[in-house]
Amino acid sequence: MAPSPARLLLLVAALAAATATGSVVNTPFPAGYPSPWGSGASEGWEDAYAQAREFVGKLTLVEKVNLTTGTGWEADVCVGMTGSVPRLGFRGFCLQDGPLGIRYTDHNSAFPAGVNVAATFSRDLMRRRGQAMGEEFRGKGIDVQLGPVAGPLGRVPQGGRNWEGFSPDPYLTGVAMAETIQGIQSRGVIACAKHYILNEQEHYRGNVNVKIDDRTMHELYLWPFADAVRAGVGSVMCSYNKVNGEFACENEWSNNYLLKNELNFQGFVMSDWGAQKTTLGSALGGLDMAMPGDGTGPPYFSFWGGALTEAVLAGKVPEWRLDDMVVRIMAAHFKVHTGNYTSRPDINFSAWTKQATGPLHPSSNHTFTVVNEFVDVQADHANLIREIGAKSIVLLKNENKALPLNKPKSIAVIGDDAQDIPGGPNACPERGCVNGTLAMGYGSGTAEFPYLISPATALRLQASSDRTAFTNTPSNWDLDAARAAASKASVAIVFAMATSGENFVVIDGNAGDRNNLTLWNGGDDLIKAVASVNPNTIVVLHTVGPVIIDYAQEHPNITAIIWAGLPGQESGNALVDVLYGKINPQGRSPFTWGKSVADYGAQLMFKAPNPAVPEQTFDEGVFIDYRYFDKAAVEPTYWFGFGLSYTTFEYAGLKIAVSNASSSSSASGLTAPAPTYGTVNTSAAANLFPAGFQKIFPYVYPWLNDSSANVATGTGPNISSFPAAARNGSAQPVLPAGGGAGGNPGLYDVLYTISATIKNTGEVAGTEIPQLYVQLGGEENPFGVLRGFDEIALAPGEAKTVTFELTRRDVSNWNSTSGNWEISTREKFVFIGSSATMIRLNSTLPAPAGMTWAGA
Ligand code: NOJ
C-alpha cells in the first residue's frame, strides 16, 4: 500500500508548503436577502410549474397556508402530514422516514444503509436501490421519502448519523445522492435531500452555531446538495443547527442565497422536526413547509398555520412569498407524478399503531377506523438487498488466500454480532440496543425489518451443505469459551460491531455520536482472544464507520478482515456470498480508517466551552477524512477507496483528451418579479374558522382564531427585525455562479476525457473500482480529491477501457471574492488508482484550452 514514487514527490512538495486552511470569512450576501421565487425554468420542472401555478391560482389564502403547515406531531397517520384542500379533493402530503426504507410500517424491506451503497461505488446499485425504495414508499401511499442524506457528510468519524448518508467524500456522496434521488422520484415519490446543512454531529445539534467559510461550504458541504438539485430533487430538509449565526431553517444565506438562487433549487424546503424557530424568520428565510407543524404555544400552537395567515394579512409575509411556498410544494408533486405515476395512491398505514384499527388523528385520539391495511410492498427487493449487501463488503485483509472459503473442515462462529436478535430483529424500538447482529444504526433513519438473516444462520446453512463441522459461540464476554471454540476449528470467524444513531436514543452512554472508535461489547478483546489461539482467524465487522483496527491488520493470526457495514435484512446471506466466493468483493472503503481519533484532525465537540451558546468553527476547511490524513502525513490503517478482490488488476495506457468546451460564462441578468397566483380575500373575516367547525385539539389549522386576531401586528418576531429587503419581490440579480440546476450550467461542461485500460490478471472474474483523483495545486488544496470512479467487471484475462469525464466544476476552486468557481493557474495532476493512495497511473493535467499553468 506504499505510495507510488510520483506520489511521494508530490506529497513532499505539498507538505513543504504552509498548512493554512480556510479561515471563517463573512459570507458575502446582502442582509435581508429575499427568498427567491421558483421560476420553473429548470430542466424537468417546466410542466410541473405550469400545473402548480394553475392549481395554486384556485386556492384561498387558508388553503394555501394549509399546504405549507404540518398538522402536528402524531396528528395524522404519517410521521409528517400537511393540511389538505378538501374543496378540490386534494389530501395533505404524507411524509415518512427514512433513508434506508420505510420507518414504522410492516411488510416493507430494510435496505442496506447509505454507507453500504456508497461502498459499492456502483451507480447502478445506487439507482436500483432508489427505485426499489421509491416503489415501497409509493405502495404505502407516501408522498415524500425523508431521504437521502448528505448532511452529515462525515466531518468526524464518530458523527452519529454518518451511516444514514454515504461518505465523507463529497464527490462520492454527490453521485450517490443524484442516483438515489432519481431512482426514488422515477417511482412517483418526492425525495428529500437532508439535513441541510452542517448538521455534522448529534451533540448540541439543536443549537450549535457552526461557523464556516464560503469556500469550504462550496467545495465540501454544499457540493452533494448541488448534485441533488441538479438531479431534480423535489424537497430539501433544513437542519436543526445554526449556520454562521442563523438557524438553518431561517438562514438567508444557506436557503435563499445558496440553495434557491445559486443552485436554482425549484422544489420546497421543509424544516426538520421542530427546527423551525419563528413565524417570520422562517417564512422570509426560505422555509416552505413547517414540520411537524406544531411546537409552540397559544394561540395557534404553531409558528405557521393560523399564525402564517395572520402574518400574510398583516403584510409581514408578502403574498408572493406564501404563493411561492405553495407553488414549490405543488410543483414537486406534479414533477414526480408523470408517466406511469399520474395517480396518487391512498395512504394505507399508520406510523403510530401496529393494529388494523386505530385513530386517524392519534394526537387527538380521534376518528377510529381501519388505519393499517398491511400492504406488502417488498416485491423481489430481497434479491437487490442481498446483492448490495455482498457488493458493499470491503475485504480489508486477505493473507494466505484465507478467503474465499472452500468447504473448510470446521468453522467456529464467535460473537454476539453473528447472532439472531433475541425477541426478533425489531425487538428494540428505533434499533436502540445491541443484542445480536447489527444491520442498521439507530434513530429515525431506521426501518422495521421484515426478517433478518443473521450471519450464524446463513453460515450454518452453508456449513450443512458443505459438511463442514460448525460451532456457534455467541458470548462476547466468555473469552474462555471463545478460545476453546476457536482453537478446535480450521477457520475461526469472529464478529464485532459498533453502532451509532440519532441523539434521542442513548445506548451505553453514546448519545447518538460514538464516544470512541473502539468496538462495542468487548469486541476488541474478543478478536484478540480468538486470534491468540487460531492461526486462521477471520474478522467480520458490522460497524457504522471506521473503528480502530490496526492491531488486527498487523496480527499474524488474523488472515482476513471484512467490513460488512450495515447490510440490512439479507446480512448473513450477503456475507456468505462473499466469504465463499460466490461474489468477488468489489466494495471499497467509503471512509478512512485511522489508528486513533486524533488521527482525523477535526474533532467532535462533546462539551461546548459555553454550553448555553455552543459554537464550532470548521477551521479544518476542506481537509476531512483522507484529505486530512494526506495533508498531515498520517498513515491510517486503511485509506479511503481501499478494498481487495479475489483477483488482481493491472492498469495501463492513461490517455487524456482536452475538450474544446467554451470558456465558462457567468450567469447574469435579472429574474422576473415575484408572481402571485389567484386573488385572495384579505379580510380577516374571510379567514376565520367556518361557522360550526369542530376543532380537534391539538390539530393545527390555517384559520384565524377569532375576529379579534391581531392582523395589524401579526405573530412572531417584530417586523423591524427584518430589513425591508427580505420582502422585496422586485426582479433580483441572478448570481454569477447560478443560472441552472446545481449552479451555472458551464460548471458541468466536460473539459477532459480521461481513459485507461484495466486488465484482470488473476484467475477468477472480478470487478475493479478504478478511482480518479485530481490535485488542484497549491497548499490550499488536498493532495488529491476524488473526481471519478467506475465499476468494471472483468473475466480472467479480460481487459476493458474505463473512461472518466472531468467537468469544469471538477477542476475548479471556489473564489469567495468573485463569488464564483474558477480554474486556478496552478499546475494540476491526475491520478488513477485503486484507492486514495494506491496510485497506478498519473500525469500532469494539460491546461484547458486558452489557459496555461503558471506553476505549482
Ligand atoms: C428528525 C430527524 O433529524 C429527521 O431526519 C427525521 O426525518 C425527522 N426527525 C422525522 O422523523
From TrEMBL:
UniProt record, GO biological process: glucan catabolic process
Lineage: Eukaryota, Fungi, Dikarya, Ascomycota, Pezizomycotina
Sorted UniProt keywords: Carbohydrate metabolism, Glycoprotein, Glycosidase, Hydrolase, Polysaccharide degradation, Signal
Entry protein name: beta-glucosidase
Reactions accelerated catalytically: Hydrolysis of terminal, non-reducing beta-D-glucosyl residues with release of beta-D-glucose
InterPro entries noted in UniProt: Cellulose_deg_GH3, Fn3-like, GH, Glyco_hydro_3_AS, Glyco_hydro_3_C, Glyco_hydro_3_C_sf, Glyco_hydro_3_N, Glyco_hydro_3_N_sf
PANTHER family: BETA-GLUCOSIDASE, BETA-GLUCOSIDASE A-RELATED
Organism expressing this protein natively: Cercophora scortea
Pathway assignment: Glycan metabolism; cellulose degradation
EC number assigned by the record: 3.2.1.21
SUPFAM superfamilies found in the cross-reference section: (Trans)glycosidases, Beta-D-glucan exohydrolase, C-terminal domain
Family: Belongs to the glycosyl hydrolase 3 family.
A GO molecular function held by the record: beta-glucosidase activity
Domain Fibronectin type III-like positions: 768-836
Signal peptide, first to last residue: 1-22
